[in-house]
Design a protein that fits this description.
alpha+beta, 2 domains, five-stranded antiparallel β-sheet, five-stranded mixed β-sheet, binds guanosine-5'-triphosphate, Diguanylate_Cyclase
């Protein structure tokens, strides 16, 4: 085999070094090299361009110069630990960074540990800007939360909608069976509500519904669940509450509504309600009994609360 002269070897080494430097310079992603103390020894043009600094502004600086103050200590500690680790270790993490103009961005930093000519370790870090992806993810998350909210809530009153409410009713019945706790529901319906729409228009009717449901929610206990069954008919689930306590609670609701006026027309409103307490394991049956009791309340003059007999 032909021997390679030391001169030739030196040439080959230099060429390889130049090639590597040119590749790093031309790389479209930001690359930096930091020394064991965390100071920049090399920053490529893409790195400088991303942060908005000139090369000479970064070289010699501690790398936490581009990190928000709150993360600086953690990142310094990580850097020191990384420098002492195995040669083949790699690090991939998501970080928030600060550009020269103060703008915050999110990057993925991928780091590798190499050994320099002086025998000391260095950290090579490759950065990828994922700010747009993060913003998109955040928008998607918010849109999903909104969709989830819309799927479970009534748009006008923001109360739980019928489907979500009936699901909660079944869950609460199961819970009360398991723990043997009392449990009541109340269905209430506004009295002569049609006249509001007919006299003042549908949007005044909408405002009345919003204001009354908001008032009722305020009067209820935090543990009660307030649901719009449809139209001007609502369900209240009262976990841990017996018929007598439910009656007292609904009396408070009835009085509060009857004492208030609603919308700019100063409208007075009343409601009728039927209460049913848990006697058997069926949400449908419980709803039927509460509905019958409410019908009685309407039949016997409105603006009143009726408790369903267990035989109802
Ligand atoms: N503005 C408005 N009206 C609604 C909404 N949902 C249902 N309604 C109206 O509520 C009214 C209910 O009328 P009825 O079922 O006759 O009941 P009521 O007039 O309250 O009479 P009683 O219940 O017997 O006291 C109808 O006019 C519906 O159009 C809504 O979301 N907004």
């Amino acid at each position: 085999m032909k021997e390679i002269s030391p001169d030739k070897l030196y040439q080959l080494f230099n060429r390889s070094k130049r090639n590597t430097e040119n590749v790093i310079k031309a790389a479209p992603i930001g690359i930096c090299i930091t020394n064991p103390l965390g100071h920049f020894e090399m920053v490529n043009p893409a790195y400088c361009e991303f942060y908005g600094y000139r090369q000479e502004e970064l070289l010699g600086q501690h790398f936490t110069h581009v990190v928000p103050e709150v993360n600086q200590a953690v990142l310094s500690a990580l850097h020191a630990e990384f420098m002492q680790g195995n040669e083949d270790q790699e690090l991939r993490q998501e970080w928030e960074v600060v550009l020269k103009n103060g703008e915050r961005r999110t990057i993925i930093a991928e780091a590798a540990r190499i050994e320099a000519d002086d025998g000391e370790p260095r950290k090579v870090t490759f950065i990828i800007d994922i700010t747009q992806r993060k913003q998109l993810e955040e928008r998607l998350k918010q849109a999903n939360e909104r969709l989830d909210h819309l799927a479970h809530h009534d748009e006008l009153t923001e109360l739980l909608n019928r489907r979500a409410g009936l699901q909660r009713l079944d869950e609460e019945i199961k819970r009360c069976e398991r723990y043997g706790t009392p449990f009541s529901i109340a269905i209430y319906d506004l009295d002569d509500f049609k006249a509001i729409n007919d006299t003042y228009g549908h949007s005044a009717g909408d405002s009345v519904l919003q204001q009354i449901t908001s008032l009722v929610s305020d009067v209820l206990r935090d543990t009660d669940l307030h649901i719009r069954l449809g139209g001007e008919e609502f369900l209240i689930i009262m976990p841990g509450v017996n018929a007598e306590e439910a009656y007292q609670g609904m009396e408070r609701v009835r009085e509060s509504v009857a004492q208030q006026t609603f919308t700019e027309h100063q409208l007075t409103m009343t409601l009728s309600s039927g209460i049913a307490s848990y006697v058997e394991a069926s949400g449908t049956r419980l709803l039927e009994r509460a509905d019958k009791a409410m019908y009685q309340a309407k039949q016997t003059g409105r603006n009143r609360i009726v408790i369903a007999l267990s035989s109802m």
